[in-house]
Structures are given as structure tokens and as C-alpha cells.
Amino acid sequence: MPSDILYNEEKDDEPLVSVTTETDNALPVETTPQSAQLLISPTIVGKYLNIEANGDVTIGDYAAGQGIFWDQSAGTLSILGGLVVDHLDIPDLVTADSFHVDTAGNTWWGSVLIGGAVAKVLKNGAATFTNIQITGVQAGSSLDSTYLTAINSAKLNLADRGWSQTCVFSVTDADTVSWAAGTFVTSDATTYNIAVNNTDVRLTAAGLASPMNARVYIYLDIGTSTTEYCCTYTATTAVGAGKCIVATAINGAVEAEFEVFGGVGGSNINASQIVTGSLTANEIAATTITSGKMNVATLSSIVADLGTITAGSITLNALLGTTVITLAEGRFNYPYTKGTVMYFNNDGYTQSGSTRTPIMTQLSVDIGTPNAYVQSVSLAGGAEDWDKDFDFNLVCKSTTGANDADAFVGLHIAATTIPTTARHIGFYFDSNVLYASNADGTTQKKTDISAGLTLGNWNSYKFIFDAGTNVKFYVNDALKATHTTNLPATGTADYPAIHTVAARISANGGIYIKHTPTCVIADL
Q1: Which terminus of the chain has a lower count of CB atoms within 10 Å, N or C?
Q2: Which of 46-50, 163-167, 223-227 has the lowest mean pLDDT?
């Protein structure tokens, strides 16, 4: 057993150090206690204090977690069981590059005083750091973007970066969308060269049904390839770390549809996705809509100045409606089937003392010449009567050589004389006076309408007969008279016929009248 071992003793709570001397084959002999401060010995062993010869010091029950250990070789002091101090200052209270903890629990670095510290954590949890690098964030953590002034995008995941791409997308057929070669560039200028491809090939590469039969998501997944876009039918597969959705596509009845989300963009959409009434001329480029692309039920769908129609045909039933066409066709055909239009010599007119051309008939009477006339046969051989509505139009001029010459143009029986009380409607030239005239077979109704007219000029003469109601007389489209009495009605004679007649009244009278073709349209 080694000699010169010191043992601790307690006396009235005062630690004592006893020196014992141990000799060979003899029990230790206790000597007079001495102060440990005065002892010089390689080893001190006690219950709460151990000092080793190598300089290590143990105070308290360090092995049980309640003590202090000084490691001489490492130069470290370890404390177990807690340390209570009123403040902590490392290395001291005056060095700027220092660490401090005050009695309130505030901590700071790099300054003697907390106010000038470049880094500090206050007891209320508020912290200030001049420069900080975070390598990991716990789940549930959040950062207020208001206080983030700059983040290096290269440090972000691909899915969190901005991007652009130059691949041009196009439709191949009803179930295939293709894209040309291009680049995918992220916000930090990382560039991926993307190869030309299509949905058929990329779906097959992913082990999915091809060609596409539902909506497909086209995306870049750098974990799978940095040169090819991927395709999937599942939207969630196209998102996540290292992924960006570039476009979506779906098969169609005639053409596939697609929508590209960034870069050069592009889309091919179905008309059903366009909001009704949202397209205006501003959105449609000139000459881009051709006739082959237009199919409307009625022209009411189109509001436009059609200009000159240079090709194709117009079906009037679709344009105007069946009812209007039925009426119009009858009215247009009527002059050929039931009335007469003066176009050429064998048009059904009989004549005397006249000269006729394809576009004008000329009547003249002079001294010694009998009445001159041009008249038609009765309309439809007398099948049409005065119970029909008539619209009569004539353009003519007259030249009077004397005051004793008369003329009549209008509807009258097939006769060679100027009508008076016989059933008729028309314009009566009495020398230099023009009358609106009609009669019911017994009484004639005449109104002088000469005012403001020059009968030697070409004038347009028109009357509209509303059977049983009235007849309105127009000259040059101006209403000159309306008659409601002595209107011709249905009878057994005096059936209406287109009638033009000029007559001399005395040996010195004469009149000269020219007229363009006339037309009667009767109510069907």
C-alpha cells in the first residue's frame, strides 16, 4: 500500500487533512492534522475532494452527476448538477469580442454592452443576428416573407424557382400533342436542353396507356431526366421536389387540346371553353376566318356589311324565312303569269299609232291622227278583279303641243279611250293639268296634283291600291293624294288591265308621251 496518503476528516463541519505514515508490515500511524494548503503531496484523496498527481481535480460526487472536474491535460472544467452565478462574462467585462449573460437572462455577443451587440437573444425570445445561415427548418416553422429581402434562387428546389421554356407545342392528331426541341431555364440561369418528342412516346416510356385517352400532365422531373419532358395521367405525380408542370393536354373528337403554362406559351382549345359573347373584332385577326369555318343557322348570328358577293349562292328561304319568300315569289312571278311587263313587242300589249323599243314605248297624236294607245289584255284573262291590292309604277314624261290633248296611264279595262266613270285607277293628263283619278263604274273621283310638277320632265308615277279601303297617289315618291271614295270594286266588267292611252280632243290638239316599262303586282 502506498505511503503518504492523506485522508479527509470532518470536525464540526471543518474539513481536516490527516497525514498517516504506513510502514512495511505495520498499521498506519496517525500524525497530527495539518492544513491541506500546507501539504505537498502527489495525491490527495477525500470524500469531496480529490487532487491527482497529474493535476486533475475532482470536487463533489462528480461520478454521480453532482460535482466539478478539472481536466489538467485538456484544460477544461466540467460541471455536473448545474452552475449558479449572478452573471457570466467571457473572457471578461472589457473585451469587445466577448460573450455575456446578465442576471435577467439576456445573452449577447461581440460587445461589452447589449445595446451594441451584433448578435443577441433577449429573455422575451426576440433575437438579432447580423449574418445567419439556416441549414434546416423544423416542421411547422414559418418565415415572414416581409423580412426576407433576398434569397439565392440557386438554393431553392427546382419546384420553387421561376422558369421559362422555349419548346413549341402543336397538335398532331386527335390524341397526340407534340413539342419541338427547346430549353427549360430556371431563375438562376440553370438550363436544361429538352429534346423533341410527343405524348405517345412519353406515356409509353412511363408505362402508361398510349395514345392519350384522358387529361395528360406534361412536366420536367430532373430526378428522371434533364433532357426529356415526362407525361402522366395523375396530377399529383407531376408536382414535388425537382418537378415543374409545363403543360396539360387532352384528347378530342377532331383535334387534341393543350395549354402551355409558361415560356413561349401556346394553346389549342375547344370552342366550348370560350365564354359566349367574349370574342370581339379586337380578338380576331383580319382574314383569319374563312367560309369553311363558318356554319350558322341564321344570318342573325352575323352582323356585318357583306359588300359584294363574288362567289357561292344564297338560299332565300334560309335568308328571309319561308313566309316572306312565299309572298315575294308570288309577287315577282305575278307580272309574268297574271300581269304584263312592257319589255318587247310580243309582251301581250296591243297598240296603235305608236313606236316601241325594248325599254320604252312612245305614243303621239297629231292633227288628223286617231287616238293612239298601248294597252294590255285583262290581267289573267279577267281572272283578277278589283278585290286585289295593286302596286302600280310608271316613269314617263309628256310634251303638250296644244291645250286640247289628253292622256291616261294606269289600270283600266282593255279599251282604246281615256276612262271617265268606268272602273279605273290612274293618272289623267288633261292638257297641262295632272289629276289623280279613280271611278267605281258610276262616279269619277279626280284631284288636281299638278302643283310643283313639270310634266315635261321624267317623273315617277305610282299608286298603291288597298282594295275596299283607299288608293294613294305618289309622284317622285311624294304622296300627292289619298282617295277613299268611288273606289273600283268587284264586278262583272271593266276588269283591270295595264292601260296607256293618248287622244286628241279637237282638230288642233295633240300630245306626246313616252314611258318606260310598267309593272303591276297584285295581292295574291
Answers
A1: N
A2: 46-50
Contact yes or no for 358/344 (Cβ under 8 A): yes
Per the CB < 8 A criterion, the answer to whether 431 and 403 are in contact is yes
How far apart CA 423 and CA 493 sit, in angstroms, is 9
Q: d(Cα 408, Cα 58) in Å, to the nearest integer?
A: 150
| Nine-digit cell string for 294 | 363558318
CA neighbours closer than 13 Å in the CB half-sphere of residue 278: 6
**Whole-angstrom distance, CA of residue 94 vs CA of residue 104:** 20
Cell of 270: 375547344
Residues in Cβ contact with 346 at an 8 Å cutoff, skipping those fewer than 6 apart: none
All cell numbers assigned to 303: 352582323
Q: Walk me through the domains of the chain, giving residue ranges and CATH numbers.
A: 6-80 (no CATH), 88-127 (no CATH), 158-272 (2.60.520), 349-522 (2.60.120.200)
- What cell numbers appear for 141 in the block? 416553422
Report the distance separating Cα 163 and Cα 183, nearest Å: 10
Predicted confidence at residue 516, as pLDDT, reads 54
User: What residue ranges in 319-360 does DSSP mark as E strands?
Assistant: 349-352, 354-356
Question: Does the structure show a pLDDT above 50 at 208?
Answer: yes
Distance from C-alpha of 228 to C-alpha of 221, rounded to nearest angstrom: 8
Is the pTM higher than 0.70? The answer reads no
Q: Name 30's bridge partners.
A: 20
Q: Which of 61-65, 181-185, 265-269 has the highest mean pLDDT?
A: 181-185
Phi first, then psi, for residue 210 (nearest 5°) are -145, 140
- How far is Cα of residue 463 from the mean position of the Cα atoms in its chain? 54
What gap in Å lies between CA 127 and CA 511, rounded to an integer?
A: 120
Q: What is the three-class DSSP state of 160?
A: helix
The residues, any chain, with a CB within 8 Å of residue 283's CB and separated by 6 or more, are none
Backbone angles phi, psi at 304, to 5 degrees: -165, 160
